[in-house]
User: Fold this.
Amino acid sequence: MSQAEVGKVLQKSQQGYSHIENGRAELKIDDLILLCKFYHLSADYLIGLTDKEK
Assistant:
């Protein structure tokens, strides 16, 4: 997915999501929850604490 598409999921601009991806802005917990629901993955998987998707 493009940054613009993920930004729409998070209700942010492409640039806003780019800042998160590049470490210039922090991913808020509400955004993490949205990404988990969108991708159907656990938060632990998305942040690299486990190899198990669920």
About this structure: The chain has one domain: 3-46. The radius of gyration is 11 Å. The chain has a mean pLDDT of 95.
